[in-house]
Specification:
Belongs to the YciI family. The protein is an alpha+beta fold and 110 residues long. The protein contains 3 helices and 6 strands. The chain has a single domain, classed as Alpha-Beta Plaits (2-Layer Sandwich). The radius of gyration is 16 Å and the shape is globular.
């Protein structure tokens, strides 16, 4: 089952002082076992563009919604047997401590 894993900042990161896991080791391990299909860090929020259409009118603005405190900083596309395995992969990502991870399965449109 495919999951999109959104890597996000958080206003309340973990206060545990033990060293965070190494992101390169996380990528290498999950690439090697086929659980991580793709992923990438995103450009800073200052490079974001928000597009909306309201009443037939195109509205384009710089950045995310103005009051946003937590932002998506990267993503990984996972292939896991089930949600439990996806949670285990997310749990070991360094941003699970420094930020937050959102897992979302791909919709079955068939």
């Amino acid at each position: 089952m495919k999951y999109m894993m959104f890597v996000c900042t958080d206003t309340e990161p973990d206060t545990d002082k033990t060293p965070e896991p190494d992101i390169e080791a996380w990528v290498t391990e999950n690439d090697a076992n086929g659980r991580r299909l793709d992923g990438h860090e995103l450009a800073p929020v200052s490079a974001a563009t928000t597009v909306r259409v309201r009443g037939g009118e195109l509205l384009v603005s710089d950045g995310p919604f103005a009051e946003t405190k937590e932002v998506v900083v990267g993503f990984d596309l996972l292939e896991c047997a089930d949600l439990d395995e996806a949670i285990e992969v997310a749990r070991t990502h360094p941003m699970a401590r420094a930020g937050r991870i959102e897992l979302r399965p791909f919709a079955d449109l068939g």
